[in-house]
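We were asked to recover a plausible sequence for a given structure. The inputs and outputs are reproduced exactly as logged, with field labels preserved.

PROBLEM: sequence recovery
POSITIONS: 467
GIVEN STRUCTURE:
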């Protein structure tokens, strides 16, 4: 009985989490229905074992592969055991017809007509969310009838995924895209193994925004699944992305125990390509003062810091060199990375922009400001991930008087006195709207000062160690 309540509670929490990121970008989500089993499974180990047994036989690309000599039958396998994603493989030569998003096995078959094996799947790791998955193009894998002939021959495997769904929201770009891509690449390929990215919904702005990262994953040009009309041959194919859950990389599920430290090293290499270009950090920035990045939200989005100017003044007085950072979709990631990579502390209110905490150097200070009723969402994003990334994670939970909700609601109401209980009793989109969109923040500067001073001490210590 109690267990079940807890489970129910968890489901609600994770569901709320999902909502938060929709609210952030004001996606219309009236379509959402409550769903179960959102928490990701822990069955990736099984998958890893499967890959070990079946090493895809593609280590030796030959200039003109002769498929009929392939010693083992080419098989199609789909692992659908995970809560958040499906993953399918073709372990031998295959031809892709992009016009119908279909991969055909080539050469020696394990199925002969009329018993063709056909699998259909959607390569996006939010399987539980049927509304999102409706917008993801379905991929077919089939062992027959025989596919078309090759127009473009790649002597490397394909890795196929969709950049659709929520892509465009900075949090989702990483949570549903770049991080799962990193995990998948490290689960399937060896370090120096080449592969081609085959991407659905690879819109120009997205490819440009993430070009440094995509090119670091693979130097081969991207195959655009949606408008390419040539057939492409690969030595094998993996379709789908592995996710380890919300903002998570679980080293226990990766062959070489990669962590967020490896992920960050990957980012650093990717953005290190720009060495020699004009450094975005102003040359007159102080050598003595630790740099603080204050993440700003603006407009009618909720969770805006109303006394930001005073907060900036306060932080300066305490000793920080303060920069206000207000990322937009146009913000160059290389610039953002370089700026954050040289920062000693970041402070921001819970929201998608805090995904930039991924760019902080381990050991630097990351303070998440938690508005009323945002306790759970802040824990999952970005509290847990911040700690896992090795940041000096701090949390500033605002008091009732620091929330603009006191101007609207009775300060003795459950809504203000115990938001968690209130949400538990009366859960709805409207209620979450109150906490996420109606609420702005006015810091109690006396109280916040103590936190900032603490952050300053930590940042200064970090600066003296790491520069
Ligand atoms: C396919 O679409 C992408 C993205 O919109 C575009 O950059 C590319 O030029 C298109 N390719 C062809 C062959 O139309
Ligand atoms: C990030 O900072 C470190 C020093 O802390 C530096 O070695 C590295 O080159 C920086 N990365 C980029 C991409 O600028
Ligand atoms: C650098 O100097 C200019 C002009 O004095 C000033 O406006 C700017 O804020 C300074 N930049 C930093 C990061 O301190
Ligand atoms: C639940 O919330 C709705 C508004 O979203 C409100 O009308 C209703 O009175 C609330 N019920 C309780 C028990 O608080």
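RECOVERED SEQUENCE:
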């Amino acid at each position: 009985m109690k267990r079940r309540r807890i489970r129910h509670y968890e489901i609600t929490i994770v569901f709320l989490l999902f909502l938060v990121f929709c609210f952030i970008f004001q996606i219309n989500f009236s379509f959402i229905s409550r769903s179960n089993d959102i928490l990701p499974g822990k069955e990736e180990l099984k998958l890893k074992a499967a890959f070990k047994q079946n090493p895809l036989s593609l280590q030796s690309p030959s200039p003109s592969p002769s498929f009929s000599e392939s010693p083992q039958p080419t098989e199609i396998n789909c692992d659908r055991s995970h809560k958040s994603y499906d993953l399918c493989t073709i372990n031998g030569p295959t031809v892709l017809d992009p016009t119908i998003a279909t991969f055909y096995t080539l050469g020696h078959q394990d199925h002969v007509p009329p018993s063709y094996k056909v699998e259909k799947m959607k390569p996006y790791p939010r399987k539980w969310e049927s509304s999102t998955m409706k917008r993801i193009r379905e991929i077919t894998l089939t062992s027959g009838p025989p596919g078309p002939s090759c127009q473009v021959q790649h002597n490397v495997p394909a890795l196929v995924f969709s950049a659709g769904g929520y892509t465009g929201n900075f949090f989702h770009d990483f949570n549903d895209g770049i991080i799962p891509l990193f995990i998948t690449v490290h689960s399937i390929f060896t370090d120096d193994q080449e592969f081609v990215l085959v991407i659905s919904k690879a819109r120009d702005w997205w490819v440009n925004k993430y070009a440094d990262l995509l090119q670091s994953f693979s130097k081969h040009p991207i195959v655009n699944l949606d408008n390419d009309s040539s057939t492409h041959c690969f030595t094998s194919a993996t379709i789908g992305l592995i996710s380890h859950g919300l903002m998570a990389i679980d080293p226990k599920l990766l062959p070489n125990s990669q962590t967020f430290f490896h992920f960050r090293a990957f980012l650093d290499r990717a953005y290190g390509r720009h060495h020699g270009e004009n450094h975005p950090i102003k040359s007159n920035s102080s050598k003595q003062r630790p740099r603080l990045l204050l993440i700003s939200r603006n407009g009618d989005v909720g969770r805006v810091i109303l006394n930001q100017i005073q907060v900036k003044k306060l932080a300066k007085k305490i000793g920080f060199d303060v920069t206000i950072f207000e990322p937009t979709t146009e913000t160059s990631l290389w610039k953002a990375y370089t700026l954050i990579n040289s920062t000693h502390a970041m402070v921001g209110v819970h929201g998608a922009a805090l995904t930039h905490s991924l760019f902080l150097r381990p050991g630097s200070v990351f303070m998440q400001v938690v508005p009323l009723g945002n306790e759970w969402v802040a824990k999952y994003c970005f509290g847990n991930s911040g700690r896992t990334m090795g940041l000096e994670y701090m949390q500033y939970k605002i008091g009732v008087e620091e929330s603009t909700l006191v101007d609207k609601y009775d300060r003795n109401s459950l809504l203000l006195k115990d938001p968690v209980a209130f949400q538990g009793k009366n859960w709805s989109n409207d209620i979450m709207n109150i906490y996420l969109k109606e609420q702005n923040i006015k810091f109690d500067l006396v109280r916040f000062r103590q936190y900032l001073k603490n952050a300053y001490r930590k940042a200064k210590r970090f600066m003296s160690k790491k520069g």
